[in-house]
Amino acid sequence: MLKKEVVVSSRMSPLARRKSTIGVIVAVGVAIAAAVGCGSSSGSPASKEKGHETIGFLYVGPHNDYGYNQAAYAGSLAVKRAFPAAKILEAENVPETAEAERVMEKMIRDGATILFPTSFGHLGPAMNVARRHPDVRFLHMGGLKTAANLGTYFGTIYDTQYAVGQAAGMATKSNKLGYVVAFPIAQTLLNVNAFERGAQSVNPRAKTYVVFTGSWCDPGKQAEASNALIDQKIDVLEQHQDCTKTVIQTAERRGIFTTGYHVDASSLAPHGWLTGSEWDWGPLMVKMVKIVEDGRFRGSPYSGIYRTGVPSGVIKLAPFGAAATPAIRKQVTATYDKLKAGWIPFKGPIRDQSGKVRVAVGVTPNRHQLESTDYFVQGVVGKIPGGG
Amino acid sequence: MLLEDVLAGTVRSGISVLYAAEGELISERSGVINLGMEGCMLTGALAAFATASATGSLLLGVLAAAGGGALLALVHAVVVITCRANQLASGLAVSFLGLGLTSWLGAPYVSQSISPLNRVNIPVLSAVPFAGPVLFQHDVLTYMGLALGPLIWLFLYRTRAGLILRATGEDGAVAFAYGHSPTLVRYLAVVFGGMLAALGGAQLVLAYTLNWVENITVGRGFVAVALVIFAGWEPLRATVGAFVFGGSLALQLRLQARGVDVSPFLLNMAPYVLTLAILVIASRGRARRPPGEIRAVFGTSGPGSTRSAVDA
To answer: Between A and B, how many CB-CB pairs are < 8 A?
Structure first.
């Protein structure tokens, strides 16, 4: 896998990029300009002054993928707005290998004192770099390990997936919902379970059909996985992939409903979009930078394993689309309000596919228990390898 | 019902691989292995998507793809035919060049949208039960791809140009002795092969995924190269191979969607394992020899010993 370390200049907003109808030649020019800009800035001394930090962001994919990385990139824009004097360094398509260490080392040489490695697999490399640079603060997204100068945070996005499942359960006519999933891991299983439970809460006959693609981003396979589900008469399609466009556009093209994940992609499905879950990392990232600036990182919640969700605004419900009826809007908004108050939509009894009780009557599992989910709930059609 | 869905899915998932496989076949039949098909597909995919999104014209997109794939294949041709570098090394380099270049140049296009290449139902035939949805409700590039195997078979075995191509692939010295330039034949074959692979990439993005991301082909170009070898360098067998690959992909996803009690990890392996198994079984009993010049690349008994003197 080739990796490119393109430092995106803050001048190029995604909107400007989208609007431009530049050809390949202009793209080369822009990329070279960005690269040159990067080159000339290296070697400038790190400023210790407040608000003048150099802050580095690493993304595992492109910053405009209508998915996970775009959400993280939006966070960096918020940091940039909140600290106009800060210097923001960014690197896209950073693989989860020793390459990530090299990118972080380079950013530190360029003066970075705060680093945001935003992919789960950036954690290992970040731990190594953190050991070598005790004065640099690392704020990692989505992990379970920490160090003295490294904390990790994530959002409980399965909460809104419950509300999204309600929208799907109310919209479906065939009572069949589809879910295109990358790999069977706790995070994805939890989202599918929340989605199906939400759907069941409003439509007891709703079933969720799951297909695993075995890849975080293989659009060719996503397209056929979507077709396979739609051929089977599912009429609402949800997904857990890194790049989300193909599934949404395939659903729209075939005239069924779609719900989103990671970011608001309603513009891709003007007819079928219901709603979706999205990240709003900006305010949290700004808060974390402030804490580091004030020298209060150690002992703050952000130096440990930090989880947050709907109440803090990190997890949001995407805007409703044209397909969302007034009844759907009312129901989903009511649930969203409960989630804002801290409600966890996993109160027992919860049975897995085989009928075995996984959460006893009246019990609500804690966040840690939820994050080790290894089963599908009843009503999900699909097979977890080695699981029930 | 399931069968009809699977077969329609087979055509959709197999067609881009089919283009690349037939392209590779033409190239290898002239005596040049091109492991750069992955790069050519990616180049075609990006060129098609970027042009279509910038100009709004799908036709220009397809033309740009053909041009881009031809250009990248030309790099391989110059390196291995004129400069006589190792074919395997050059092909891999071309693949990674294609991957790197398209990742870099393609970054601004990740969030762009195009108006896709739409289905064109063939009158009358598309209404035929079963055969209609499977064969006659696709986009133009798919129809072209479906015709590709038979057309290349006719070209290879029923035309004089095809005979010259095969002769060049078997032994460049013989073709040379009969007054044909192996250099010219190989240049044409490699460039045309790259062009076909690029059209496969174009079909993938314009009619199927409807978007561009880095490394969007995820190895389909390498699958195509393997298909040619296991298809014994026969265009109709390569067609079958591409559809076995597409078919097992379409089938395994549908089995998953029906909640079949088999590990999705195993099901996701199925396209590769099944394709390999079927082609190996299909070619059993008949010793399928690669074209002579291809054997020379691997240093086994080829006609290469006399070649350097004549086709420089």
So the answer is: 158
Tokens (6 digits) for B27: 């190239």
Sequence-ordered list of residues with C-beta below 8 angstroms from that of A188, at least 6 positions apart, any chain: A181, A182, A240
Average pLDDT for A287-305:
94
- Assigned domain for B311 exists: no
Chain B residues with CB inside 8 Å of A243's CB? 110, 211, 213
ipTM: 0.88
Rounded Cα distance between B200 and B221, Å, is 9
CB contact under 8 A, B265 and A385: yes
The Cα–Cα gap between B92 and B95 comes to 5
Query: Residue A11's pLDDT band (boundaries 50, 70, 90)?
Result: very low
Do A27 and B105 lie within an 8 Å CB cutoff?
A: yes
Pick from B50, B214, B253: CB nearest A62: B214
Please list every residue in chain A whose beta carbon sits closer than 8 Å to the beta carbon of residue B111.
Answer: 14, 17-18, 64-66, 70
Measure the CA–CA gap between B100 and B111, rounded to whole angstroms. Answer: 19
Please judge whether A228 and B5 are an interchain contact, meaning their C-beta atoms are less than 8 angstroms apart: yes
CATH number for the domain that contains residue B181:
1.10.3470
How many domains are there within chain B?
A: 1
In a domain, B305, yes or no: no
Q: Is A388 a residue whose pLDDT tops 80?
A: no
Whole-prediction pTM: 0.85
CA-wise closest residue to A112 among A173, A44, A11: A44
Q: Would you call A19 an interface residue with chain B, using a CB distance cutoff of 8 Å?
A: no
Please write the tens of the pLDDT for every residue from A101-123: 999 999 999 999 999 999 989 99
Nearest chain A CA: its distance from B65 CA (Å): 13
What local confidence, expressed as pLDDT, does residue A22 receive? 37
Kindly state whether residue B64 falls inside one of the protein's structural domains: yes
Average pLDDT on A261-288 reads 95
* Contact (CB, 8 A) for B187 and B269: no
pLDDT surpasses 70 at A6: no
Question: Are residues A6 and B104, on separate chains, in Cβ contact within 8 Å?
Answer: yes
